[in-house]
């Protein structure tokens, strides 16, 4: 009799547990549906946003914009603002618009205007420049933005940069060729509206004329809008090696090979798809200069510490240990990362893949630079046949275009550091890369040149 009573009690308890578990799982399922529905809604690209340029090439340009009402918009374009002789009509009525203009001439200024539901979007025609042919000798000016989604100092940094451009015009051509970022375009959660408010709108006066290429950062990963907004070359459309994925890619601009990696979602293990592709891509490139960008810095003592190896910080360690050896073996010239909301920079260094306290300046600094007319000049060896000569790589942390924060700034590999918000201009020609860090106040507080020439011609100075 006692056993029967005990069995009944246990059965009742188990029944209640099963019912409670069922209710819990049901609630969990409902919460998951609500959460994913919310993420879908805030990630959906639907609404008005300004025009911006993507996928710039010598023979093509992609224009993107958004509208409240779905429509088949028309792009009118031509070689004169008053003679827009060509037009492209979208095939489908959409709110997230993307139109590629093709069969264009290289290094040529085109004008365009967009008509939406019978009305012009712009008061007058806008313009863009197609790129030089890959490998062509052409002076290139790049604007680097680091973590631009932050709000605090975005506008002062932008205005200071525009002021610097006005003070340093280029005769007979536009003052800027392309824009590259280090990721985190929208804070805090990378919703569609945050991309509009924090990235596309503040820079709309620039993005409508100058193409922008963006890195995928940890904040970009919080929602699903990123890949709906930004185009990525997957089939080597602009040089480089086909990656067959939007996560990482490369392209050529004049004599510069540019690589943009995914340090957040991609596998950073040796032999992974991305690192295998990276090795092949760098091996096949014959461009004189190579610049690589990704989000997580291999070295920093700013708002993050690259020595910390906790789960959420581990990617900085993996980048340092697994990605850097590939880059240095290929003779990469400049590596630019973000994430840490400061500005930091190394000399030309090599073979530092460990913790900060293992940095040996005597062995790892290949060139500490020389002061010439107020700027630090570095020299890298170069052979016309493309043979890689170990000469060190420059590492830059640029996460301060939205805000600048104080850090410890005591990483031995990064002797140059600042808490000032700012952005970087790179002027590249066949002989040198010249860099300027322009702060929110308009001051240029770091100037360096990397020269790569068989001879030593006089440098054309830029303040």
Automatic annotation (TrEMBL):
<keyword id="KW-1133">Transmembrane helix</keyword>
<dbReference type="InterPro" id="IPR008963">
    <property type="entry name" value="Purple_acid_Pase-like_N"/>
</dbReference>
<feature type="domain" description="Purple acid phosphatase N-terminal">
    <location>
        <begin position="51"/>
        <end position="120"/>
    </location>
</feature>
<dbReference type="Pfam" id="PF16656">
    <property type="entry name" value="Pur_ac_phosph_N"/>
</dbReference>
<protein>
    <recommendedName>
        <fullName>Calcineurin-like phosphoesterase domain-containing protein</fullName>
    </recommendedName>
</protein>
<keyword id="KW-0472">Membrane</keyword>
<feature type="transmembrane region" description="Helical">
    <location>
        <begin position="21"/>
        <end position="41"/>
    </location>
</feature>
<dbReference type="GO" id="GO:0046872">
    <property type="term" value="F:metal ion binding"/>
</dbReference>
<dbReference type="InterPro" id="IPR015914">
    <property type="entry name" value="PAPs_N"/>
</dbReference>
<dbReference type="GO" id="GO:0003993">
    <property type="term" value="F:acid phosphatase activity"/>
</dbReference>
<dbReference type="Pfam" id="PF00149">
    <property type="entry name" value="Metallophos"/>
</dbReference>
<dbReference type="InterPro" id="IPR039331">
    <property type="entry name" value="PAPs-like"/>
</dbReference>
<keyword id="KW-0812">Transmembrane</keyword>
<feature type="domain" description="Calcineurin-like phosphoesterase">
    <location>
        <begin position="141"/>
        <end position="343"/>
    </location>
</feature>
<dbReference type="InterPro" id="IPR029052">
    <property type="entry name" value="Metallo-depent_PP-like"/>
</dbReference>
<dbReference type="InterPro" id="IPR004843">
    <property type="entry name" value="Calcineurin-like_PHP"/>
</dbReference>
<keyword id="KW-0732">Signal</keyword>
């Amino acid at each position: 009799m006692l056993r029967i009573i005990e069995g009944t009690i246990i059965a009742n308890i188990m029944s209640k547990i099963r019912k409670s578990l069922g209710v819990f799982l049901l609630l969990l399922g409902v919460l998951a549906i609500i959460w994913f529905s919310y993420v879908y809604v805030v990630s959906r690209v639907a609404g008005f946003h300004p025009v911006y340029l993507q996928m710039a090439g010598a023979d093509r340009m992609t224009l993107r914009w958004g509208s409240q009402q779905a429509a088949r918009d028309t792009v009118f374009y031509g070689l004169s603002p008053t003679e827009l002789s060509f037009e492209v009509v979208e095939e489908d009525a959409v709110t997230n618009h993307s139109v590629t203009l093709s069969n264009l001439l290289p290094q040529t200024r085109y004008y365009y205007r967009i008509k939406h539901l019978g009305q012009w979007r712009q008061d007058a025609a806008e313009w863009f420049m197609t790129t030089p042919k890959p490998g062509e000798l052409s002076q290139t000016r790049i604007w680097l933005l680091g973590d631009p989604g932050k709000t605090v100092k975005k506008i002062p940094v932008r205005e200071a940069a525009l002021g610097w451009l006005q003070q340093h015009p280029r005769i007979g051509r536009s003052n800027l060729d392309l824009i590259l970022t280090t990721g985190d375009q929208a804070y805090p959660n990378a919703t569609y509206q945050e991309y509009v408010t924090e990235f596309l709108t503040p820079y709309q006066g620039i993005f409508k004329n100058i193409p922008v290429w963006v890195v995928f950062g940890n904040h970009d990963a919080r929602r699903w809008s990123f890949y709906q907004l930004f185009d990525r070359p997957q089939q080597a459309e602009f040089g480089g090696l086909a990656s067959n994925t939007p996560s990482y890619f490369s392209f050529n601009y004049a004599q510069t090979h540019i690589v943009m990696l995914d340090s957040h979602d991609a596998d950073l293990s040796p032999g992974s798809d991305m690192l295998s592709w990276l090795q092949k891509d760098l091996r096949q490139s014959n461009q004189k200069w190579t610049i690589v960008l990704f989000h997580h810095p291999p070295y920093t003592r700013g708002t993050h510490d690259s020595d910390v190896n906790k789960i959420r910080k581990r990617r900085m360690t993996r980048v340092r240990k697994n990605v850097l050896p590939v880059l240095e073996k290929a003779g990469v010239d400049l590596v630019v990362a973000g994430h840490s909301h400061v500005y930091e920079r190394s000399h030309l260094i090599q073979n530092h893949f460990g913790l900060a306290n293992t940095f040996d300046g005597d062995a790892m600094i290949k060139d500490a630079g020389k002061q010439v007319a107020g700027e630090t000049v570095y020299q890298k060896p170069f052979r016309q046949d493309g043979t890689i000569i170990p000469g060190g790589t420059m590492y830059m942390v640029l996460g301060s275009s939205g805000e600048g924060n104080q850090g410890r700034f005591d990483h031995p590999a990064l002797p140059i550091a600042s808490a000032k918000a700012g952005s970087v201009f790179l002027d590249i020609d066949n002989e040198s890369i010249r860099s300027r860090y322009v702060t929110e106040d308009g001051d240029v507080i770091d100037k360096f040149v990397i020269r790569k020439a068989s001879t030593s011609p006089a440098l054309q100075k830029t303040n």
